[in-house]
Structures
1.
Amino acid sequence: MNSTERFSGILLHPTSLPSPYGIGDLGKKAYDFVDFLEKAGQHLWQILPLTHTGYGDSPYQSFSAYAGQPLLISPDHLTELGLLISADLADIPEYDPDHIDYGSVIPWKQSLFRKAYARFSSAEYQKKNTYQAFLSFIRKESFWLDDYALFMACKEENDGVSWLEWEEEYRMPTEDFKNTLRKTLKEQIGFYQFLQFIFYEEWLALKDYANQRGIKIIGDIPIFVSMDSADVWANKELFQLDPDGYPLKVAGVPPDYFSATGQLWGNPLYEWEAHQKDGFSWWISRIRHQLKSLDILRIDHFRGFEAYWSVSYGEKTAIKGEWVKAPGDELFRAVQAALGDELPIIAEDLGIITPEVDALRTRFGFPGMKVLQFAFESTGESDYLPHRYKDPNCVCYTGTHDNDTTLGWFLNLSKECRDKVLRYTRCIDPAGLGIDMIRAALGSIAGYAVFPLQDALGFGSHARMNTPGVAAGNWNWRFREAALQDELAKALREITILYGRY
């Protein structure tokens, strides 16, 4: 972040966009949202991880650290490419415009994708330029795409269960067996390669559209990867696993603001010595890949690069764990050597942050995060209050995807804390608190200010994106097209100009 930059933007995952297909996608409504950002004077669009989600539909638990989310592929774009016809879209199920029903969306979209791939694979279509671009894509992206497509084809062969439940020859494949699978599963492998080609074609076109309008995309990656992923299956030596592939220790965080028993994420932990031996090549590859698709990268749980919470596999909660040191300094020096000194990275430094974590973040110049909701959890002083900020190299949020909406959060505060919020923001009517909190963020010295769309719309807890520690009912919120009114864009633009962020 340039020390003189003052920009603001909106946090919204593409799945939350309006769409007749049950889930937001990268079609016209995504471009309409970019147009809204431009009208509203915003220069940042922050999203959650774009990766192919697994069990629980969480963007933070994916089948690959590289592969894009196929559910974001636009059926309209497939139609434009001649891969779907109007009859294919004649049986669109009735969907709730406010929430995603993944249980019905996934099989319906998969059926569309199969039809599209059948046409794409035809001898006639293979003469088209699009097919030649596909062949170029699979060659260029083979360093991750080969493993991912084979993993997904094997998962399909094994009824979708976790790879830890596969027969041993699939679970611990030799190179010879992998080569055999690439022949016998050629059709399935091609299908998953096709989906990734279409996804990245759509996403990069949308990103280019945003960039041309002065809008940067802030993306997001979790520090850890999912156990049931191509990353772990194909790179077992890089993780703390036993000889059969099961995790020895798993990730989480100790008891904190969000949970009295901590959060047991269950992700396998890195075998950092193995990463050090090969110069952190896996991490360099991962970050390089993300920065081809994004302008700025937020790394979730940054503190895990200094020390991570290690819990024995099989524990029911995260209470019984220990902090173990990680080679964050060595890692980011290697990333700098490969990708340049000025890494466009935001460090998610929330939770239990020690002076060592702050020193690591500061050493590499990564902006940290300030969440305004945290500033009012008591009536005393807090470093999250805007008047306490000492360094503009930070990002101020009203709330994140893990917080309740500002209105929902406010209504659950104590009377004393609610009173402080109203006095601090000079809010007269709590129904408008979202905008008043946005004003507080924009008026801070933070270089970047970001707010969830829900806060700009004044929505309550029904629009919450995620509740940490709660397994069901997350990641499914959507807004309706009528919500993005010109009056809202004008109001946001005016306060953005007022606070010098235009």
Note: The longest strand covers residues 216-222.
2.
Amino acid sequence: PSEWTYVRKDGTQFPVRMTINTLRDPDGNISGLLFIAMDIAEVKRSEKALKESERKYRLLVRNLPNCVYKGYIDGSIDFFDEKIEQITGYSKEDFLSRRKNWFSLVHKDDLASAQEKVKQALRADDHYIREYRVQSKSGDTIWIQDGGQIIYGENGEVEFITGAFLDITERKLVEPHIERLAHYDALTELPNRLLFNDRLENALIRAGRRGTRVALLFIDLDRFKNINDTLGHPVGDRLLQEVARRLKSCVRK
């Protein structure tokens, strides 16, 4: 078989797949040729559309920060995009050749919870989102946010898992700082009003449950406004920092 381009009477071109077979007489000698031509214009259009779709998909995956994968319940992987090496230092071949199992990279303290997320998804017939640490090829610890979907075959058995994971190490590093900014005063490093109200509410609930009381102590600084007005706000800030230091030195943590 071969593909040729034919020209119609009106001058338009169309692709044809031609199959040529020999015809033989009873003695086995070639007596003629049988040509079978099939218009494959629609096939060519479908192939072109498929290639264009694949090209757009590759561009989309390449521009996403996530690393797309296809794997199995046991942690083996048979598809990763190129970003796997950027994130972990391991190449796709390390996983495809089974030299590395994805679970072997997961931090031992996070492995059970990561596997449990998949089990919960299996029980609920739902997707999963999990966060855990993995060790890169260089030995660095990386935080991963992993979201996936379990795909079932026609017989109802698990066929494979498809999903994508994202390197969230930077976010995890700043989370404690953000948490502290939300609950502690930046100048004195004492608990702010938000954290104070939370602790006070918990104390009142606990006291109500136990039948005890809560004492609230209010401390003021005499003539503090005079310090700000006469010596300036920087001096007033230093005074507040010193008072905070003394308070922390004479009460329990």
Note: The chain has nine helices and eight strands.
